[in-house]
Amino acid sequence: MARLPLYAVASIALLAAPLALAQGNVGQPTVWRCMNDGRSHYTNIKKETEGKSCVVVSREISVVSAMPPVAAAAPASARPANFPRVDRDTQRSRDEARRRILENELSVEERSLADARAKLSEEEGIRNGDERNYQKVLDRLQPLKEAVDRHERNVAAITRELASVK
After folding, report:
1. How far is CA 12 from the centre of its chain?
2. Which end of the chain is more exposed for a tag (fewer CB within 10 A), N or C?
3. 1 pLDDT exceeds 50?
4. 113: domain range?
């Protein structure tokens, strides 16, 4: 009695095999490539192909995410056994030296910013005889304005960097 279902399953499988092969890719949906405004559109939904010039794609389609994969291979805290380690006092002295350097750079950059602003305000009050057109004044002042902007960005960047120092 146990043999009867086994024979039944085997005979059904033998009868269904030619039907499955006649349908094409067994277990895989049919994929169409449709051209829309000069761009390819791939779909496996038959209704989306109606009224369009679509062809069955005979190769395998793989979808790749646009997002880069998360680095799951090695956790961020994993270090090699021979990774160099710095003791606390050495790191503290490095941080202090870095802070001193950044503070010096900040003071130099603030002085440069003050000088650039002073030079810009001085030049804004001067009107040369050949500058009857105001665009010539703007062209003359543009490099000075760019210098002020550059020094302001540098001061902001150094200030951010100082805030991140331990």
Report:
1. 54
2. N
3. no
4. 88-164
